Amino acid sequence: MSILSFLFGCKEVKKKTQENSPITEIEAPKKEVPFVWEGANVYFLLTDRFNNGDPESTVHFERNEETAVLRGFEGGNIKGITQKIEEGYFTNLGINAIWMTPIVEQIHGATNEGTGNTYGYHGYWTKDWTAIDPNFGTRKDLEKLVKTAHSKGIRILLDVVLNHTGPVTEKDPVWPEEWVRTGPKCEFTTYENTTACTLVENLPDILTESNEPVELPDALLAKWKEEGRLSQELDELQLFFERTGYPRAPRFYIIKWLTDYINDFGVDGFRVDTVKHVNENAWADLYKEANYAFETWKKKNPSRVLDDNSFYMVGEVYNYGITGGREFDFGDKKVDFFDYGFKSLINFDLKIDANKDYETIFKKYSRLLNTKLKGKSVLNYLTSHDDGNPFDKERKRPFYSANVLLLTPGASQVYYGDETSRNLIIEGTEGDATLRSFMNWEELDSLPQIQKIHKHWQKLGQFRRDHPAIGAGKHKRLAKSPYVFSRTYVNADYKDKVVVGLDLPKGKKSLWVKGFFGDGTKLYDTYSETEVMVANGKVILENDYDIALLELVE
Fold first, then answer.
1. Closest among 27, 29, 31, 34 to 96, alpha carbons compared
2. Is the N or C terminus of the chain more exposed, i.e. has fewer CB atoms within 10 Å?
3. Does any domain span residue 98?
4. What pLDDT is stored for residue 1 in this prediction?
C-alpha cells in the first residue's frame, strides 16, 4: 500500500445523514491523490520558534549574552518538528509540505545595532554551510525528520541562502575579499544596485557573479581541521569540481554545500532566500545541481521515493506579485526568474488582494495561473516572518483569513500560528521580532475559541490537501447568492471536481450546482460531515455553518 493510499484510505468515521442522525460506517477507499506543487499546502515555521523536542538541549558556542526581546535562541529544534509530525499535527492540518528556516551553522557571536544583542536564531546568518547548527540539532535529527515526514506523505523544504554570509562579529571574522563585498549598501532602484551590493550594513555579500577561482578561507579550513573532517570536505569538493567542470568560484562552493543536503537526506525542495539580490544565472546553476542531486538520491533510495516530481524551488523575490505575471521589474531591467530554475515564487499580492471579495480574488488568480503563469505557480501567504504589514495583524479575522489563503488558486503558505491566531504584536520587540514569538501551544490546549479557529483551519486544510482542484484547478462561479463556485483539475487519467459555498446563511440553505454535478449525484459536505444528493440542479443543507466543502461520494 502506498503512503498516500494509507493516508486517505479506509477509515471508520462518524457520518451524519441529512436528518442529522449519527451513523457509523466504513468509508469506501478513496482513490489515490496525486501530489502537485502547484496546489501544495505548505507550513512555514521558524525552526527555533516552533517546538522543543529536546528539553535537555543547551545553548551552544557561548551564545548566552542577554538579547533584545525575541532576538535570542528560544529552544525550538529539529526534534520538535519531528515530534509534531509523529503526533499527526501536520496531517490533521492538511499540510503536505513543511518549509523550515535555515538549519546551517550560524555565526557564534551577537550583533548589536542599538536595540540590544541579536543572535542568528533565525538561520539566515551563515557561518558554515557544511554543518548543522547544534542549537537546531544534528544530522541524525534531520535524517529522522525527513524520513518521518515522508512516511506521512509530507515533503520537506529547506530554506537556503546563497547571497550572503552572517554579519561580522568578534567571534566571526569577515570572509576573504575574493569571496565577498562589504559595500556599497543596496539602493533597490536599478538591477546593479540591487544585486551587486550588501542588503544591510555589516552583511557581507557573496560575489555570486564571479567566475574567478578562489581558495577556501583559512578560518573555515581551521574549523574543519579542528572538527576532524578537513580531508573529507576537501575530497568531496575535488570530486564535485571534477564532475561538473565548474570553476572554483564562490557560488559553486556554496551550491555544492547546499545540494549535499539533498544528496544525503533526500529533501524535496528549497525555499530560496533573497532571490533578486543575486545574478539570475546563479539560480539556474543551483537548480541544475539540486535536481541532479535529487535524481541521484532517488536512484540510491528507490523505496523512499514519493513520486516522480522534480526537485522543487520556490523563490523569495521580495515584492514580486502575481499581478505582474512572470517578470520582476528592477526599474531598468526585467527578469523572469521562472526561467532560472524556479517552479514558483512567493506572491506578495495576496495580503493586498485579501481585502477584496472572494470572487474577485479567485477569478483573478485562476485566470493568471492558467494563462501568463501556466506551468508555473505562486506561493500565496497572508503573514510571514519578515513582512511587517501582514493581512489581519491583530488576528481579528481568522476564519476569513483561512478561507482566503486556503481556497485561493495557487499553493498556500500557512505561517506557524496562523491556525491558532498566534499573537503578531509582542510588547517590547523591535522590527520583525514581533512576528516571531514561540508557537502558542498552551493557548491551543486551553482556549476554546483558539480550538474553534484551529478546527476551521484543519477542515479547510484537509480539503485542500485531498483535492488538487482547489489550488491547481480551474475556478468557475456557479452562483452569486449564496456564493457557490467549482474547481476542476485534470491531469492525464486523474480528474478532481469540487464545489465550495461561502458566506452561506445559517439553517436551511440551497447551493446551486447545475451544469457541474448532475441530478442524482451523491455529494459529501466534508465541513458538516453530511451526505446529500443533487436534485433540480441544487443541494440542500441544514446546519449553522456558513461554509460547505462538497466532494463526490466515490
1. 34
2. N
3. yes
4. 33
Q: Which of these, 198, 200, 217, 218, lies nearest to 208 by C-alpha position? A: 198
Q: For residues 154 and 267, give the distance between their C-alpha atoms in angstroms, rounded to a whole number.
A: 11
> Residue 542 belongs to a domain with what CATH number?
2.60.40.1180
| Region class of 536: left (phi > 0), else alpha (psi between -120 and 50), else beta | left
What are residue 315's DSSP bridge partners? Answer: 272, 345
Tell me if 394 sits within 8 A of 431, measured CB to CB: no
pLDDT of 516: 98
Q: How far apart are CA 97 and CA 85, in angstroms?
A: 11
Closest CA to 345 of 313, 367, 309: 313
Domain stop point among 439, 468, 497: 468
- Residue 328 in any domain: the answer is yes
Q: Which of 285, 316, 466, 551 is catalytic?
A: 316
Q: Is 27 a catalytic residue?
A: no
pLDDT tens-digit readout, 204-259: 999 999 999 999 999 999 999 999 999 999 999 999 999 999 999 999 999 999 99
> What number of helices (H) and strands (E) belong to the chain?
16, 26
Residues 102 and 170 in one domain: yes
Alpha helix (H) residue ranges in 278-397: 281-300, 350-353, 358-369
Through-space distance between the first and last CA atoms of the chain, rounded to whole angstroms: 19
Q: What is the pLDDT of residue 290?
A: 98
**To which residue does cell 486556503 refer?**
406
What whole-number distance in Å separates Cα of residue 324 and Cα of residue 72?
38
Predicted pLDDT at 139: 98
> For the packed helices 281-300 and 250-265, what is the interaxial angle rounded to 10 degrees?
30
Single out the residue in 437, 468, 499 at which a domain terminates: 468
- Known catalytic residue at 187: no
Residue type, 246: Y
Spans of the chain, pLDDT less than 70: 1-31
Residue 377 and residue 266 in one domain: yes
Residue 30: what pLDDT? 57
Same domain, 442 and 504: no
Single out the residue of 122, 53, 133, 54 nearest to residue 85, CA to CA: 53
Contact 211, 249 (CB under 8 A): yes
Cell of 205: 555579500
The catalytically annotated residue of 38, 141, 273, 280 is 273
Q: Are 512 and 478 contacting, i.e. CB atoms less than 8 angstroms apart?
A: yes
Q: Which residues form the domain of 477? A: 1-32+473-554
> Of 369, 348, 299, which is closest to residue 39 (Cα–Cα)?
369
pLDDT at 6: 35
Task: Give how many domains the chain has, as a whole number.
Answer: 2
pLDDT of residue 31: 65
Based on the domain organization, do 349 and 280 belong to the same domain? Answer: yes
SS3 (DSSP) at 318: coil
